[in-house]
Amino acid sequence: MHDPTSVMAEIDTCARLVKDWGRVVELAQRHRVAAVILPQFEDLADRGAVQSDVVEEIRGAAFSDIAVTARLRVALKEILSALGESSVDVIVLKGAALSSLIYDDQSVRPSDDIDLLCKEDSYERVWDILVKLGYETDDSPSLPHRHSQEETYFERHFYHPDGFVHVELHVDDSIKTGVRPQLAASQWTRVRSIQIDGSPALMLGLEDQVVMLSVHLHRHGFNRLMWFKDIDLLLRRYGDDLDWEMVLDLARRESVGPSLWYTFRFLREMLDTPVPEEAMSALKPGRLVLWTYNAIWPEAGVLDLRGRPKRRALQFSIHESWRGTIPSLLLMGRRREKIGILLRRLLRFRGPDRA
């Protein structure tokens, strides 16, 4: 554990060396950490290490994020209440769940939307409740037909007419690799009960949470510091409670071990996040995967907070032709299932009279 006084002194030293404060403000806004760092910037201003106008820009960005997040939390509370009255369970994913679990001040963790996970057999009821609450969607109240058990359902989108609230509804799939998760059912047996603004809610179990957040960060090209900090705080606060063998098992079954290893590697470099060496050794991919990943997501760019754009390589999607299939086949696992999906689609497209 780092001494807060010595850490603040180090931040003070670094602040006095900064030449481009506009760049610092831009990074804080882009990486959605303004509310998190605002107290430190106010302290730096008191020390004379930062100009007051810089602090005002950080404060403005922080208050903007807090206002958006507050509106989303009000909407989430209404949704959870309506679902609860109908005895429909959903899992709250990402921002809202994490802010209640790992942040002392829940308002500092910004959110852009509301992410919910439901079971396949409760989708129509959730759809109906959201529509009754006034949300609009282009998605059907019935899920599309799956031509194989390996196919997954992609998220459904709901928008409130006020223009501020967007709900992403995930069906059985929390990691979004494009193939139906092997543990879609068992993840519900590991959920944790939490309170979000006084409303009872469910979140993923700690081990599922680590896997989901790591894959999510990788899928988005490691392009947001806030998402790194989520995992860092989760591991610092609950690392002793984590069943690392289960984390490794989940990663192996979903074939996302390289995503976790790469994420943990950056976390160690950037935030000195405590990740067991045994887990790193077990997750480490082969040389070819390492070389490929570093070519697509260069270490220097990620550590310099430049990240990379969202890549299709992690998400298998037959609806996007080769762009949505070939990269995932080459870079990710579960190739047998993906090839099976492609072959079934191809045979169905050709039809029996063309076989």
Short structural summary:
The protein has 355 residues and is an alpha+beta fold. 52% of the residues lie in helices and 8% in strands. A four-stranded mixed sheet has the order 1-2-4-3. A two-stranded antiparallel sheet has the order 5-6.
Structure characterization notes:
It is a single chain. With 355 residues, this protein is an alpha+beta fold. 52% of the residues lie in helices and 8% in strands. The strands form 2 sheets. A 4-stranded mixed β-sheet has the order 1-2-4-3. The longest helix is centred in the first third of the chain and has 34 residues, at 52-85.
> Order of strands across the biggest sheet?
1-2-4-3
Largest sheet, strands/sense/barrel: 4 strands, mixed
Radius of gyration from the alpha-carbon trace, in angstroms: 22 Å
Oligomer: single chain
Low-confidence stretches: none
The ordered H/E elements are HHHHEHEHEEEEHHHHHHHHH
Number of helices: 15
Distance from first to last alpha carbon: 65 Å
The best one-word shape is globular
